[in-house]
Amino acid sequence: MIVEHRTYTFRPGTVDSWMKKYEAEGLPVQKKHLNRFLGLYVSEIGHLHTTVLMWGYDSLADREARRAAMYGDPEWQKFIGEIWALNAIQSQDVMIMNPAPFSPGV
């Protein structure tokens, strides 16, 4: 399994409204397409106004196919358009993480 690790930095005061919208509208669409939701974490100490979102995939090809299907979904297009219109996200960083040979499940 590979892990997609997404870090989002938000404008101060916008994380809570983004999370409510994401939980209600974005996450259900992503779960339908991306399948293996590993978690969403919110910073409390350190870089504030930051979230980390993680998804698991069998391979890069699996990720590519699943994300292509999601991008083709009209529900996702509606959601992501509304998210960008909020102008809440200041930056995003996406990493693909490979497990170390001694990681659980390898």
Automatic annotation (TrEMBL):
<dbReference type="InterPro" id="IPR012577">
    <property type="entry name" value="NIPSNAP"/>
</dbReference>
<comment type="similarity">
    <text>Belongs to the NipSnap family.</text>
</comment>
<dbReference type="InterPro" id="IPR011008">
    <property type="entry name" value="Dimeric_a/b-barrel"/>
</dbReference>
<feature type="domain" description="NIPSNAP">
    <location>
        <begin position="4"/>
        <end position="104"/>
    </location>
</feature>
<protein>
    <submittedName>
        <fullName>NIPSNAP family protein</fullName>
    </submittedName>
</protein>
<dbReference type="InterPro" id="IPR051557">
    <property type="entry name" value="NipSnap_domain"/>
</dbReference>
<dbReference type="Pfam" id="PF07978">
    <property type="entry name" value="NIPSNAP"/>
</dbReference>
